[in-house]
Records
---
Amino acid sequence: MLFNAVMETNRTLSEEQIADARRLKSLWEREFKGKISQEEAAHLCGWRTQGAFNQYLNAKIPLGLPALLKISEALGVSPEEISPRLAAKLSGQSYIPGSDNPPAAASSEIDLLLAKATPRSRQQLLRIAEAAADGRLSESDIKMLSDIAKRLEKGSTNHSDDYPNLKPDTADPDS
């Protein structure tokens, strides 16, 4: 694959996305700058370099739900402090543009769930949350998630009968 030297670097962000970046940058400068490096913060988010973190910080790319959750977890802050708009999506509540005041309990259940999840499960939950927030879950997706939830409520961890053709990856600690 050849490197494309003429990459588009000017993305148009919405006012809300710019406000998210400003809140993140303000929080960073007030609480974390000089205490940890952007590279350390990026590694806490699971990113290889500080480039992505810097781009979110400086409004070069829009902050999405997975990045918001990674950054808020890495910095130990609530998602609402960075993006009330995206945090409201997590809780299924409406958000009034320009508001910095979503309901206080908006992420508490989600934070507890993510805190209990294994790293691999957390990654999948974040992907599902992003798809849900973007309205990309179909009715069949929701039915499948509901079926999984019902099976898990029963407490059984052996689902081999549910997926007879699925062979777990022996190298995968989460299967």
---
Amino acid sequence: MVSPAVPVKVWILETGTWTDPGTKPGISGFTLLELLVVIVLIAILGSYVVLSVDIDQEPRELEATAQQIRQYLNSASQEAILSGYPVGLLVEDNRLVFLLVGDDKWEEQLENEALPQVSVTSRWHMTMQKDTESSDIDVNDLGGKIVPQALIYAEGYADPFSIILTGGADDRISYSIATDGSRLFSVTMLEK
């Protein structure tokens, strides 16, 4: 016995023909469960991306700040050479202050664009470590309330010192901006 013929629907589309007898073209979709799984996977991957960006960003910001401080120290060296007077350095309260001699005492440079006060964010720490005592000038002789911790001299050299920037989770990242007394300042990452 011969079975009756099943009618076949033929859809003529712009791109060709569709001859599947049981479905219409363009009708498809996702189940609610499939959509929820995709959304959860995207959320998990997104959280990893956000965490990795936050972790990687802090060392870059800290290094950029260290490089900026190095540039300001180079400007202070040029200022000392051009003016013929030493530039004093003072690190206190997470800020680097440049000092010049004025009216027989050290004065903070508030108006000098080349030597601005450099502050770091409260989640970081800035300290100064001196390798030796000042060699040429007794900084206490000038009196006043402000006394520099290190000097950059007009002759083109400086007291050997390091400015240490520490930050990151548990203070695990540190950079040193240092000089051995020459005019060159270097930035190095310290291992912890």
---
Amino acid sequence: MENREINLENKSGTPRKTLDRRVPMQLKKVLSGIVCVLAVMLVSVNAGSQAQIEEHEAKAAFLLKLVNFVEWPAGSGQGTLIIGTVGADETGDALQRLANGKSINGKALVVRRLAPDSDLKSCQVLYIGSSQGKNLASLLERARDTSVLTVGETDGFGQRGGIVNLLVTDGRIRFEVNPHAAERAHLQISSRLLSLATLVNGG
């Protein structure tokens, strides 16, 4: 399915231009911060900044902005939005740094590192690292009947029933969404976010 290029607007308000959001596997890229992507807040790379960012940090920032465009069932979280990570230590560490003292839609952000056999219902977001290949089927099956937003970083994650998949292809971060898996979890994902994603089915 065709990957979409995303137009970014710089902080000065000058006309939009297409920026290359490259995040190499080993090399570092510069990052100026988080800006509007059309109407969606995602991660942008500004060539004029001296700050450097690694892939796991970009994924963490991407995820924290992405959840702004997901609506959970009423009563979910009770004042907190808990992000659980399994097998994604570096991304989990980056999430903890970025989420410290922050809130989303009035809910305090909490990041917890979970074991593969943890109670998944304790969180609203579950980030599953690529090291969890042998546990992936079990994790997705246990999350299937919950309102947990499952986020992965491996090929085929969405086709196996995961909801959002973050991938690096040719040095670029892109994301896939499985709308049917989101609907099954009673999660509403913004149509604006869906318009920027590669949509997949399965699971």
---
Amino acid sequence: MKDPWVVLGEIVKAQGLHGEVKVRSEIENPENFLLPSLCLRCADGSYKPLTVQRYRFQKGGFVLSLVGCESIDQALSFMGCELVCQGSRLPSLPDDEYYHFQLLGLPVFDWQGKELGKLSEIMQTAAHEIYVVQPQVGCQGEGELLLPVIAAYIIDIDLEAGKIVVDPCGKGGVAFESPAELSPE
């Protein structure tokens, strides 16, 4: 599998007069800004190595101090560039935690082995993430499937096998024992 470039954030403006930049990012671990393998991906598609000296959180974003960027003019030249890192260079996560790039595009199967489609998007909500599954081509009458990322719906994520196993009914792979279970009480 190809080592994908993972976007850590986008430079949205210069911050102050001394070359700092404001970055819009939904990164959970801002220490990743300090990775030695960070690059800038510019609008023209070019990549430039990048070193972040320090970062701080400020008003819904991050302010970064970049090595070699010492003026507002230099900072402005980076506007619109993305901070990226190759996925293999990101720190390992604990068991049962995954980077989004590892999951997007994986085929999704129900607990009985029927392929439902591919994971196309991961939405954030206040309670938990939602997996958006686009149906496989040829499925009639089925639109996208939205699955809360909780144990009742997500049975297994197997990166080695390259698949996600789910229960769209939210019973965690347990078959209904009687029609009475289907009716609300």
